[in-house]
Structures are given as structure tokens and as C-alpha cells.
């Protein structure tokens, strides 16, 4: 293949990536408008836009700006940080099944938040909540890498992640059992299911600084992921400090996921699904996968949050329940695909 052919192929790929990104941005904007309009009181896109900019009726303004806008902002931000965290972990470990929820990060963050709530150290609107969630999320990912090792295979990663998730779940249940306040237990039980319902701008201000800080850290390491895809030795020869990269990725994931869990509870599988949906369209370069994964995560969580509002039910369906119902079959499909790939490689 000539140099001209290579350049033409690269240009076509770049145009394709730009087109996919533009479509994702438009999809997120469309879903955001739908999120602001859907609920017990249905509002048209025109009414939503009017209410956002101070027009329309007073009732519409309150519904859009005070009730639904914080929920929409959180869905965009939390979906984005989960998507980019999944892509970053997959790039760091060079494993397509890496994701925050499979390593116990959300479950551990939830345990940290539950612990401070049950001990009376914080309520659901205190900044102590995300701090505790971040500390425990950091500890879970650090523990995973310490237990599984740097070059762990798929089976070891899944087993280590399962052990950490189980430990976090068991300790959370223990804290709930030992709590003397039944109202706190009831609140925690529903909070752990994952929901964006009844969130205010106080919750946005609680989570957004940590989510943004985590995203900045992960995006700042995007060029190192490309070098790391060649292997640790090759990355080090190119000037990448692998140990520092690993620590920064852990810190970024812990900040972002901890901040998200502190206001939404446990919302799983967004970080696993988003990068996989983008690889056939964007390619396997982990550097170029970060932004599309973030946008896809936002679109997925917005769509799930819209779905829980329109699905007929006698009680409110939690968005974390819906994402798990969709995510678990997808995860099983990925495991079967990896098994076939390994069998083909052995053969």
C-alpha cells in the first residue's frame, strides 16, 4: 500500500470518527430535551425550551428548571464519567471486560457512603458522602490491582472483582442490619438501587466537582493509553511512567465514580457497555475511544432514565435496576465472545 493510500485511509477514518461524534452529540442533546419534557406532566420540546429561557407558564418553569433540569444534568454527567471510566480501565488493563462495576468500585463507594450515613456522620446532602465514597472506590480498584497483579488474565480479574464486590455488598448489608434507625435502613435500601429521582441542584453541586476532576485526570492520560496498548515495556521505552499512569487512572475513576455514587446510588454496566458500542465505529485506539464512550454513556443513562418514567408500573422503577437488567446479558455475551476467541486462538 502506497503512502497516498495510507493517508487516504486515515482521512476516511478521521471523517468517520468526526461523524460518529457529531451524531452522538446530537443524540445526547435530543435525549436531554426529551428528559426535560417527559414525566407526569408532558411538555413539548418548544415548551421545554421556552421554560428554560424564562418563558411559558410559571408551572412549566418550575417543572423544567427546578425538578427535571438537575436530574438531566446528573444523567449526562454520571453517564459520561461511567463511560469514560470503563474505556480508561479497559485501556489501562488492555482487557475488554474491565469496567468500574466489575471491579467493585461502585459497590465499595456505596459502602463508604452507607457507612457514614448509618453512623450519623453525614446525611444524603453532605460533602462527607462523596468523600467517603471516593475513598472506598479508590481502595477497591487499588485492591483489585494488588490482588490480581499487573498482567492478570480475564479469569483472575473477574474472580478478584467478584470477591471485592461480594465483600462490599456483605459489609453494606451488615451496616444496614446493625443500624438502629429503621428509616435510615429504608432510605439506604432504595438509594442503593440507583436512582436520579428527586435530585436537586444541591446534588448537582455535590457530585459535579468530583466528576469533573475525575474526567480531567482520565482525559489527561489519553495519549499514554495508546502507548500502553503496545505493552508495558514498549510504553516505558516511549517515556510512559506506567506506575504513575496506573495510580492516576485509579484516582480518576475513584473521584468520578465516588462522586456519582454519592448522589445516584449504584448504577451498573454503563461503563462496560459504552466502549463496546463504540469500538466497531471508532476503532480500538483507546485514546480516540474516550470521548465517544463518554457521550455514549450519557446517552445510555438519559435513555434509561426516560424509560423508567414511561414504563407502566405500580411503583417507580429505579434506573440502576434497568441498567443491570440490560447490562448483565450484554456482559454474558462478551464473556462468550471472549471464550470463543480464546478457543480459536488455542486451536
From TrEMBL:
Domain of life per record: Bacteria
Gene3D superfamilies, sorted: ABC transporter involved in vitamin B12 uptake, BtuC
PANTHER family (UniProt xref): ABC TRANSPORTER PERMEASE PROTEIN MJ0876-RELATED (PTHR30472:SF25), FERRIC ENTEROBACTIN TRANSPORT SYSTEM PERMEASE PROTEIN (PTHR30472)
Gene Ontology MF, one: transmembrane transporter activity
Membrane topology: Multi-pass membrane protein
Family annotation (SUPFAM superfamilies): ABC transporter involved in vitamin B12 uptake, BtuC (SSF81345)
Family: Belongs to the binding-protein-dependent transport system permease family. FecCD subfamily.
CC terms in the record's Gene Ontology section: plasma membrane
TM helices/strands, residue ranges: 20-38, 72-93, 102-121, 127-147, 154-174, 203-220, 247-277, 289-311, 317-335
Subcellular localization, as worded in the UniProt entry: Cell membrane
Protein name: Iron complex transport system permease protein
Keywords: Cell membrane, Membrane, Transmembrane, Transmembrane helix, Transport
Amino acid at each position: 500500500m502506497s503512502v497516498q493510500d495510507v493517508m487516504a485511509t486515515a482521512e476516511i477514518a478521521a471523517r468517520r470518527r468526526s461523524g460518529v461524534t457529531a451524531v452522538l452529540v446530537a443524540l445526547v442533546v435530543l435525549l436531554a430535551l426529551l428528559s426535560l419534557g417527559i414525566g407526569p406532566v408532558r411538555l413539548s420540546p418548544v415548551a421545554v425550551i421556552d421554560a428554560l429561557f424564562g418563558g411559558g407558564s410559571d408551572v412549566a418553569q418550575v417543572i423544567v428548571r427546578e425538578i427535571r433540569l438537575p436530574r438531566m444534568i446528573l444523567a449526562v454527567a454520571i453517564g459520561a464519567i461511567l463511560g469514560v471510566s470503563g474505556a480508561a480501565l479497559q485501556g489501562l488493563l488492555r482487557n475488554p471486560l474491565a469496567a468500574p462495576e466489575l471491579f467493585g468500585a461502585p459497590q465499595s463507594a456505596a459502602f463508604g457512603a452507607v457507612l457514614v450515613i448509618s453512623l450519623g456522620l453525614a446525611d444524603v446532602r453532605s460533602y462527607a458522602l462523596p468523600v467517603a465514597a471516593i475513598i472506598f472506590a479508590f481502595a477497591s480498584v487499588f485492591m483489585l490491582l494488588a490482588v490480581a497483579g499487573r498482567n492478570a488474565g480475564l479469569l483472575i480479574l473477574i474472580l478478584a472483582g467478584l470477591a471485592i464486590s461480594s465483600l462490599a455488598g456483605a459489609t453494606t448489608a451488615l451496616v444496614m442490619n446493625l443500624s438502629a434507625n429503621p428509616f435510615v435502613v429504608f432510605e439506604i435500601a432504595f438509594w442503593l438501587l440507583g436512582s436520579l429521582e428527586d435530585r436537586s441542584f444541591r446534588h448537582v453541586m455535590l457530585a459535579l466537582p468530583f466528576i469533573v476532576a475525575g474526567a480531567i485526570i482520565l482525559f489527561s492520560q489519553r495519549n499514554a493509553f495508546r502507548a500502553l496498548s503496545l505493552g508495558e515495556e514498549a510504553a516505558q521505552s516511549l517515556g510512559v511512567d506506567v506506575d504513575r499512569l496506573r495510580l492516576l487512572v485509579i484516582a480518576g475513576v475513584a473521584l468520578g465514580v465516588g462522586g456519582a455514587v454519592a448522589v445516584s446510588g449504584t448504577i451498573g454496566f454503563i461503563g462496560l457497555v459504552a466502549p463496546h458500542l463504540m469500538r466497531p465505529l471508532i476503532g480500538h485506539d483507546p485514546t480516540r475511544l474516550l470521548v465517544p464512550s463518554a457521550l455514549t454513556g450519557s446517552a445510555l443513562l438519559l435513555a434509561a432514565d426516560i424509560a423508567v418514567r414511561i414504563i407502566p408500573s405500580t411503583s417507580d422503577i429505579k434506573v440502576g435496576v434497568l441498567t443491570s437488567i440490560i447490562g448483565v446479558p450484554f456482559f454474558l455475551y462478551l464473556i462468550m465472545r471472549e471464550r470463543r476467541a480464546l478457543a480459536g486462538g488455542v486451536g
